[in-house]
Amino acid sequence: MADTGSTILTPGAGLRGAAWLAFALLIVIMLASAFIRLAQGDATLEGTVEIARGIHRAAATIAFVVIAAVAVFGWDELHPVAASRVVLAAQLGLAIALAFLGRVTPSEHPVVAFGNPLGGLAMIGLAWWLVLAASPSAPKRPHRALVGSALVVIAHATVAAIVVWTPALEVGLGAQLAATALVVAGAMLLYRRNDQCRS
Question: What residue numbers bound the domain in which 124 lies?
């Protein structure tokens, strides 16, 4: 029997654009946050850090509004519906938690030091899932969920190592980007596996 659910629930261009915008804003937030964290204490970068803070605040505010809009308008539109609703709820929950965490940042407390980068990375993975879920031609090729999970775990471990080790700025930003790419790849594999099980 043909799967008609994805045909009926094909998201509109506005929802797809919002999902892409949320993903792009989260990348900007991640880079700004990583730069601020890794450039702390460098007097020559003090002015640049303040600019990064402003970009971070603006992007975070806009991202929260966009994420909320995707949750409201995409609740019944994104497919697979059940899994996407869980992702939407998790992303909103993380956004609220990170907003509160941001009030006590910067801090040497482990919850703050690890929570910000790891939470941000998780939000990027969730946002990429939503980009895929909003696609009119969502991929349905089978992949092993274990591979996607492993990529996500490796990426989070990479960022955790950055927080502990605090390498040079260039190395830290490069590692953060690499970790983000792994999370995106992991989210894609997990999405495809879930969508394959649904169809």
Answer: 5-198
